[in-house]
Design brief:
- The protein has three helices and four strands.
- By secondary structure, it is α+β, with helices and mostly antiparallel strands.
- It has one domain: 2-Layer Sandwich (Histidine-containing Protein, Chain: A), CATH 3.30.1340.10.
- The relative contact order is 0.31.
- This is HPr family phosphocarrier protein.
- It comes from Blautia segnis.
Length: 75
């Protein structure tokens, strides 16, 4: 299980993130404070406060999804 901090600034970035998450055969959660959303739900991710840094928790491993996480990672 891994955790990464990401920042999604635009609807296109959310769409790219959710599409990549949907290709994974393991659970991926996005959370901020006490709110936890399934990363494969575009409406769920869009409903989050995108002005904040989000934490992604992966319950598996995928090279392609790790590339997406790196793209949106907070330094």
């Amino acid at each position: 299980m891994c955790q990464k901090q990401i920042k999604l600034n635009a609807t296109e970035e959310v769409r790219e993130f959710v599409k990549a998450a949907g290709k994974c055969d393991f659970d991926i959660d996005v959370f901020y404070n006490r709110i936890i959303i399934d990363a494969k739900s575009i409406l769920g991710v869009l409903s989050m406060d995108l002005t904040r840094v989000l934490t992604v928790q992966c319950h598996g491993e995928s090279k392609e999804f790790n590339r997406i996480l790196q793209k949106f990672a907070v330094a």
